[in-house]
Write a sequence for this structure.
DNA sequence: CTTATATGGTCCGACATCGAACCTAATTGG
DNA sequence: CCAATTAGGTTCGATGTCGGACCATATAAG
């Protein structure tokens, strides 16, 4: 019909659907498993925030965390409130911007993150077979290309 | 320390984390894009139910749909209520099981699904490049292995 | 047959997430 | 220097999802 290279033919459309379906199911199943390996009612998103603070260093703004986690600032406000109530983080004023805050890890937060990693690695480690790690490694670069592209083109 | 082949070394643990992180981000970004391409407040999960009914045929039970969509029956009850209110499905008694229901597509539901596909294909089609379809195709089989494994081992 | 258990579905409460509206402070234009 | 716009955060209401409790029917055990 058309020669526009960006027009989807039926095969492309089918690939698109099945690909994102697989991604969605894997995400859902792995997140459910992940959630079960976390202690009493700590959501994976909470763990991710703590993990991000450990890896990139704390003393950063909620907005930056929200950007890294791909969630809205509204969601981040809520998540940080939960983490504060659990004693895993503290917040203080931002000396460079009177509108903003800075987020800091507590010792409890750091310890919780370490324990959670042990728990998660234990659960997945007893489940996955060596071939699965091989697959994950093989898929890594392709996924990265797609992730970066989607990230750059989001609206 | 140990020779247990299922004990994760640091490289495996890192692969595990980065893999599921990529999956999570791709899922989130693509779902957000997907949601934006659907008309006025129809959630991707609602579309998926309609799509499933078209592809596998209607007149099936809510439980079967829930299994296929990987959600709980509680969630399915809610989703079907929304779809019924929008006039996209109807439900009737199950002649073979007095406890159960059967779900049927309406003409409006079928039309909505078709229109949504056009919209989604249009949005992604104008965004993705040929190389991305190639990548998706290459990743398909590996993702399928992981998905099936997670699906069989969920608890 | 009667009882125990499993299954289809709904209701309720909890929670993560989002968008819209809003406030405050920073930045930019004039 | 002042007005307009941008950016960091919070609050509010809505929605999707889940787990637990519950009801009704179907199936299995005795």
């Amino acid at each position: 019909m058309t020669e526009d290279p960006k027009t989807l033919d039926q095969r492309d459309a089918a690939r698109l659907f099945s690909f994102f379906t697989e991604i969605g199911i894997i995400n859902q199943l792995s997140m459910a498993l992940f959630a079960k390996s976390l202690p009493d009612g700590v959501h994976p998103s909470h763990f991710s925030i703590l993990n991000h603070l450990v890896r990139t260093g704390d003393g950063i703004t909620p907005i930056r965390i929200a950007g890294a986690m791909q969630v809205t600032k509204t969601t981040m406000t809520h998540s940080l409130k939960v983490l504060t109530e659990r004693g895993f983080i503290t917040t203080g004023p931002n000396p460079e911007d009177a509108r903003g805050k800075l987020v800091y890890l507590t010792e409890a937060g750091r310890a919780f993150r370490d324990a959670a990693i042990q728990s998660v690695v234990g659960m997945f480690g007893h489940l996955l077979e060596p071939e699965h790690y091989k697959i994950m490694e093989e898929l890594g670069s392709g996924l990265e290309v797609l992730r970066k592209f989607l990230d750059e083109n989001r609206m």
